[in-house]
Design goal:
The chain is globular, with a radius of gyration of 18 Å. It has one helix and 17 strands. By secondary structure, it is mostly beta strands. Strands 1, 2, 4, 5, 6, 10, 11, 13, 14, 15, 16 and 17 form a twelve-stranded mixed β-sheet that branches. It has a five-stranded mixed β-sheet with strand order 3-12-9-7-8, with no helix packed on it. Helix content is 2%, strand content 44%. 34% of the residues are buried.
Length: 241
């Protein structure tokens, strides 16, 4: 049964605030090669009024599953790129999106976990996951076919997050080298910050807000699945009751 994780945000300041969430960047390892540049996306976003006057709370809810994700930009985007699967209100054909559930390698002798998937470019897709020996501990592996570099010019892959309503966001991503094998070790930990980013939009990973540093929220697969965070008047976060 899939666990559902939830972050509840209460705005203790005196004005409405917009919040966004992005995942702790996983470790990427290119087998026999150099790690490409990794980017991060906003996985949840929303605005909430002051709690004292409205009683309102903002909820970010998603499924606790590990997903490999891939996108292909089929045409130039207008404005900020948003690496998220289309919703019912989105009729854009500018982005192809693929995902595949995976399970990170559990031990050096793991012969069960479905820890490996293969990327296809034309059309974009990720193969059903299988178990593969030699995948880095706690990681899943993405195989990229040996194709001309121009076929991969607008293709990105990495780990993905699934909202409770089913929408999938490419949480972190890189441009896959041709003929490569890349291991990804995601952690279920997220940075919560203030800012006006949209779901699927690329965010600066080193510093994503104008105020104090964002707060790190971590989930354990066998621990509490609901976290309450209070945003204070001085721009800091603190654990909620």
């Amino acid at each position: 049964m899939v666990q559902h994780c939830k972050i509840i945000i209460r705005n203790r300041s005196k004005t409405a605030r917009r919040f966004f969430l992005f995942q702790l960047q996983p470790t990427y390892l290119v087998v026999g090669g150099e790690v490409p540049e990794v980017h991060s996306c906003c996985v949840c976003a929303g605005e909430v009024e002051p709690h004292s006057s409205s009683g309102a709370e903002l909820e970010f809810a998603f499924n606790e599953v590990v997903l490999a994700g891939a996108v292909h930009e089929k045409s130039a985007s207008v404005g900020a790129r948003r690496f998220a699967s289309p919703t019912g209100n989105d009729e854009s054909d500018a982005l192809a999106f693929a995902m595949q559930r995976v399970v990170g390698t559990q031990s050096s002798e793991d012969g069960v976990s479905i820890n490996s998937t293969r990327l296809s470019v034309t059309p974009l897709g990720l193969s059903p996951s299988v178990n593969e020996a030699g995948v880095t501990l706690r990681s899943f592996r993405v195989h990229t076919p040996a194709v001309p570099d121009e076929e991969l010019a607008d293709v990105y892959c990495g780990n993905a997050i699934q909202h409770q309503d089913g929408q999938v966001v490419l949480s972190s991503f890189f441009r896959p080298p041709s003929g490569s094998q890349v291991d990804c070790a995601p952690l279920f930990a997220f940075w919560l910050d203030t800012g006006r980013y949209q779901v699927g939009e690329v965010v600066p990973y080193d510093r994503s807000g104008s105020g104090p540093a964002p707060v790190l929220i971590e989930f354990a697969f066998d621990g509490p699945q609901v976290v309450i965070a209070d945003y204070n008047e001085d721009g800091t976060f603190s654990p909620g009751d």
